């Protein structure tokens, strides 16, 4: 199969080795006989809501976010249409914030977002930095940990009833106090975790690929053929240990 990925604003939102996430998706797709076709979507470019199986938005600092915010704010309908049609999404850090209703930066400026995630973000005084470990349950009864690195001033508040990506076992997460990290809506995931995220969390990479394949084929998501993930498991363990060494949730 061809898995069609749209990479939004690669020239602006790319701060945390976001290419690494795409490289992992590409390689893991290829090892199962699929081809990941990546299309860059920049400011002013058309986003074909039905034409992609997976959307990716990476991280950026306030400055880059301010440059893309006016454009992303016009994309709400297209991104929502894609989500409603079963397109998978991974949005990281600055991209995660801008798929919510908006982000108020340290300078007080309100950056409007696409408004597809039920959340808002406001910058606080202290940056939340370090390794983080979550417990996630993306499929009922299947719990795994997700490990990564966070570095954000933004405090993200989910609307009542919204579903986080996971529960914080160690680290700050969305706001340092709710115990929630990220947000999940159907096949869309937003998260502060980078590092990049997917090399050390192959289960999450495969979950996204299987959702994207389900969109491509029009059938229900199916588990992918397992790969030898010994190196990935080591990388996950190192990151999880560092997060746990930070102590409990802060
Ligand atoms: N500028 C945002 C914040 O600090 C996002 C940061 C990022 O992508 N690192 O909250």
Low-confidence stretches: none
**How much beta, percentage-wise?**
25-35%
Overall mean pLDDT stands at 96
Describe the sheet with the most strands.
6 strands, mixed
H and E order: EHEEHHEHEEEEEEEEHH
| Helix percentage range | 25-40%
CATH homology superfamily: Class I glutamine amidotransferase (GATase) domain
In this entry the ligands are:
glutamine
Q: Looking at CATH, which topology would you report?
A: Rossmann fold
The CA-CA distance between the termini, in Å, is 43 Å
Account of the 3D structure:
With about 250 residues, this protein is α/β, with parallel strands linked by helices. Helix content is about 30%, strand content about 30%. It has helices at about 20-30, 60-70, 75-85, 95-100, 200-215, 230-245, and strands at about 1-10, 35-40, 55, 90, 100-105, 110, 120-140, 140-160, 165-170, 180, 185, 190. The chain has a six-stranded mixed beta sheet. The longest helix has 16 residues, at about 200-215. The mean pLDDT is about 95. It binds glutamine.
Topology of helices and strands:
Blueprint: E1 2-8, H1 18-30, E2 35-41, E3 54-57, H2 62-72, H3 76-84, E4 88-92, H4 94-99, E5 102-104, E6 110-112, E7 119-139, E8 142-158, E9 166-170, E10 180-181, E11 183-185, E12 188-191, H5 202-217, H6 230-245
Parallel strand pairs: 1-2, 1-3, 3-4, 4-12, 5-7
Antiparallel strand pairs: 5-6, 7-8, 7-9, 9-10, 11-12
The chain binds glutamine (GLN).
């Amino acid at each position: 199969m061809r898995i069609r990925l749209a990479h939004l604003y690669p020239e602006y939102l790319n701060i945390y080795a976001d290419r690494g996430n795409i490289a992992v998706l590409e390689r893991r797709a290829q090892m199962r006989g699929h081809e990941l076709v990546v299309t860059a979507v920049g400011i002013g470019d058309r986003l074909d809501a039905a034409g992609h199986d997976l959307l990716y938005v990476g991280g950026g600092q306030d400055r880059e976010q301010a440059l893309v915010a006016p454009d992303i704010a016009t994309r709400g309908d297209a991104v929502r249409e894609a989500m409603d049609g079963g397109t998978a999404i991974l949005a990281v850090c600055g991209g995660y914030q801008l798929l919510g209703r908006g982000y108020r930066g340290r300078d007080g400026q309100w950056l409007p977002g696409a408004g597809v995630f039920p959340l808002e973000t406001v910058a606080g005084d202290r940056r939340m930095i370090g390794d983080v470990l979550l417990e996630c349950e993306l499929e009922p009864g299947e719990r795994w940990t997700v490990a990564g690195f966070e570095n954000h001033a933004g405090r993200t508040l989910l609307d009542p009833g919204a579903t986080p990506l996971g529960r914080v076992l160690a680290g700050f997460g969305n706001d340092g106090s709710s115990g929630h990290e990220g947000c999940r809506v159907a096949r869309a995931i937003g998260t502060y975790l980078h590092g990049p995220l997917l090399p050390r969390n192959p289960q999450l990479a495969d979950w996204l690929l299987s959702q994207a394949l389900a969109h491509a084929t029009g059938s229900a998501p199916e588990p992918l053929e397992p790969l030898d993930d010994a190196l990935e498991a080591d990388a996950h363990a190192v990151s999880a240990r560092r997060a746990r060494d930070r102590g409990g949730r802060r």
